[in-house]
């Protein structure tokens, strides 16, 4: 009986095992027969940049029409992540303008990206960038799982940003030492960054190399990491009564008497704009060092209504005013405003920023005082991503003294990626070394504070300040008729020279031209012929007396066509006409045409000149623009009156 039971149990177990194996095999066969889920390729638009997508490797579908030049591409074969993904795909030849699927893979940032024309797309050059990508056909690789939906980077909340900043400011502990909790005590009006920047000793090489791992750079990108070291412990020790005898405990501050607010340093009365680089390539830490530099400059300048005023414009793709000249009237308020500036990101379009400052920043509405020199300090990390020459020329001719601070400029190998070689010399007010400062690395930037402040406050050397004496094209229209005579004609030329001598003459300052007329007209020299005061004065001496009739109307028309037609658009146009008699032709229509073209006309009459004609020729009001003397030897008396009226009129006009 026992044997039968055991046999039955064995049979049941055997049957159970058979059923189990059969079920597993059946399930496997069913699984094989089941249709696998289809991979969904995410679609993107033509304007999506690779840097906005956080996935490292992905397949996407591009729409038609991405060959359009408004979708910017940077580089060739290997593209900067600031590029349009689909635009780069067309440039690379993987796609045509009809769109399609592509495989995108992120790679390390490069030290430079060279533009090229390919497949109907013109890619642009770009300096070093933090991240790159390459493109291939949209075929999945075996064993690789691609996302069906992409993850995009998004701006963080202020709280998250604050936490990130705090973490970035903390250095990792040096190996072999235990990280100790630190309570930071800080003197009012200072920041941890400021204290570290102005008082910390330079770390030893070993400490620097240890800290450099805090923010690793991708391979192939020129490293711009700064030496980092633990700042909090040092600040804490310095902000103690034992280590710093000048330290004031917080509880004692209420007993300190408040000093009256400074009116500013009157020996440095300038209107100052800082154009700071907020591009993505600069990184967060270098951007903080840039802000600290601004704070140091503000503290050194002693800002106030009677002294220097300061505003800040940040540029990336586009410029934006952070605060203008009238926003803050003391160094402490400027310092607090600088602390609140957040990085914009994007490219490094310094040329666009200079144009913005010229047209918008230095206006009465934004606090420009008129009598104070205008100074723009442009800070550039490496080199700009656009051209600065033309924008800077217009700024100089508008009276803006441009300084350039170039930090970590291009190496010999990187110069091939520069859009505009020698950009600083093409931008600054003068190429004499006074307006250009080069800093080898960001760690050395603070050493530039004193030299810069000394230069911007040296108002006698700010050669590009726009005044009534250096902002015009002045055309002299000289009567050479027979009634003048040789001797008196030399007196007229001396009058022309005396007036010219009052102006600052150069290609970017005031320019002088002259013509002589009788019945006919003759151009003696044009605005672009002589670029120094000595050359202009010598040219005036060489003008020969012509002799003939007096056709003043024809002379004015000739001056408009041959002199002022070649005037620069942003120059004030001044015509100074000198005559000793009544015109043989009509003057009304030519005079009206001159006024209509914006030419400010001064009419100087001598001896037999008709007062009614002088009033017609002169710009309204005639009492400010028409002058008469009874004899040639008294012409010198008119010089200060003409200069005074030119300057009074200039100062009463809007700046732009």
TrEMBL record:
One of its GO terms (biological process) is spinal cord development. The keyword Phosphoprotein does not apply. Keywords: Disulfide bond, Extracellular matrix, Glycoprotein, Neurogenesis, Repeat, Secreted, Signal. InterPro entries: ECM_Assembly_Org (IPR050525), LCCL (IPR004043), LCCL_sf (IPR036609), VWF_A (IPR002035), vWFA_dom_sf (IPR036465). One of its GO terms (molecular function) is glycosaminoglycan binding. It is found in: Secreted, Extracellular space, Extracellular matrix. Residues 145-158 have a biased composition (Low complexity). Transmembrane segments: none annotated. GO terms for cellular component: interstitial matrix. Promotes matrix assembly and cell adhesiveness. Plays a role in spinal cord formation by regulating the proliferation and differentiation of neural stem cells. This is Vitrin. The gene is VIT.
């Amino acid at each position: 009986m026992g044997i039968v039971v055991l046999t039955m149990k064995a049979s049941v177990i055997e049957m159970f095992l058979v059923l189990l194996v059969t079920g597993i095999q059946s399930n496997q066969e069913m699984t094989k027969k089941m249709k696998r889920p289809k991979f969904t390729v995410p679609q993107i638009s033509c304007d999506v940049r690779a840097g906005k997508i956080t996935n490292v490797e992905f397949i996407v579908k591009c729409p038609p029409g991405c060959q359009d030049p408004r979708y910017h591409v940077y580089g060739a074969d290997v593209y900067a992540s600031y590029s349009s993904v689909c635009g780069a795909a067309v440039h690379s030849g993987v796609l045509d303008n009809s769109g399609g699927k592509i495989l995108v893979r992120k790679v390390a940032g490069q030290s430079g990206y060279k533009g090229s024309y390919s497949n109907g797309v013109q890619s642009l050059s770009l300096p070093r960038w933090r991240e790159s990508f390459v493109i291939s056909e949209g075929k999945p690789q075996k064993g690789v799982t691609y996302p069906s939906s992409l993850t995009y980077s998004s701006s963080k909340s202020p709280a998250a940003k604050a936490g990130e900043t705090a973490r970035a400011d903390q250095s990792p502990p040096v190996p072999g030492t235990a990280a100790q909790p630190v309570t930071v005590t800080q003197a009012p009006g200072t920041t941890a960054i400021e204290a570290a920047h102005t008082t910390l000793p330079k770390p030893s090489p070993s400490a620097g190399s240890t800290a450099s791992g805090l923010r690793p750079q991708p391979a192939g990108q020129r490293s711009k990491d700064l030496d980092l070291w633990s700042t909090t412990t040092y600040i804490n020790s310095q902000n103690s009564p034992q280590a710093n005898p000048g330290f004031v405990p917080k509880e004692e501050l209420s007993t300190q008497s408040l000093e009256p607010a400074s009116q500013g340093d009157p020996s440095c009365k300038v209107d100052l704009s800082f154009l700071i680089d907020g591009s993505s390539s600069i990184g967060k830490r270098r951007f903080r060092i840039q802000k600290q530099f601004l704070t140091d400059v503000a503290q050194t300048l002693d800002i106030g209504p009677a002294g220097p005023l300061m505003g800040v414009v940040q540029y990336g793709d586009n410029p934006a005013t952070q605060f203008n000249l009238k926003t803050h009237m003391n160094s402490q308020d400027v310092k607090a405003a600088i602390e609140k500036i957040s990085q914009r990101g994007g490219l490094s379009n310094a040329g666009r920023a200079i144009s913005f400052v010229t047209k918008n920043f230095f206006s009465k509405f934004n606090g420009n005082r008129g009598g104070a020199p205008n100074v723009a300090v442009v800070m550039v990390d490496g080199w700009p991503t656009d051209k600065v020459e033309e924008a800077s020329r217009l700024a100089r001719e508008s009276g803006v003294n441009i300084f350039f601070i170039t930090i970590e400029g291009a190496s010999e190998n990187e110069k091939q990626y520069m859009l505009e070689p020698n950009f600083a010399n093409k931008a600054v007010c003068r190429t004499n070394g006074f307006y250009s400062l080069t800093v080898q690395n960001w760690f050395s930037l603070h050493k530039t504070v004193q030299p810069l402040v000394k230069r911007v406050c040296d108002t006698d050397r700010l050669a590009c300040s726009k005044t009534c004496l250096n902002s015009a094209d002045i055309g002299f229209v000289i009567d050479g008729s027979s009634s003048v005579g040789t001797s008196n004609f030399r007196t007229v030329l001396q009058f022309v020279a005396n007036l010219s001598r009052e102006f600052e003459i150069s290609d970017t300052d005031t320019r002088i031209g002259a013509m002589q007329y009788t019945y006919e007209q003759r151009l003696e020299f044009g605005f672009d012929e002589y670029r120094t005061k000595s050359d202009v004065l010598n040219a005036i001496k060489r003008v020969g007396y012509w002799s003939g009739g007096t056709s003043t109307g024809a002379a004015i028309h000739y001056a408009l066509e041959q002199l002022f037609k070649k005037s620069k658009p942003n120059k004030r146009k001044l015509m100074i006409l000198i005559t000793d008699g009544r015109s043989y032709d009509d003057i009304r229509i030519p005079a009206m045409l001159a006024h209509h073209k914006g030419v400010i006309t001064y009419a100087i009459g001598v001896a037999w000149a008709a007062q009614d004609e002088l009033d017609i020729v002169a710009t309204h009001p005639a009492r400010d623009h028409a002058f008469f003397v009874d004899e040639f030897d008294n012409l010198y008396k008119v010089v200060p009156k003409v200069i005074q009226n030119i300057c009074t009129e200039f100062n009463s006009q809007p700046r732009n």
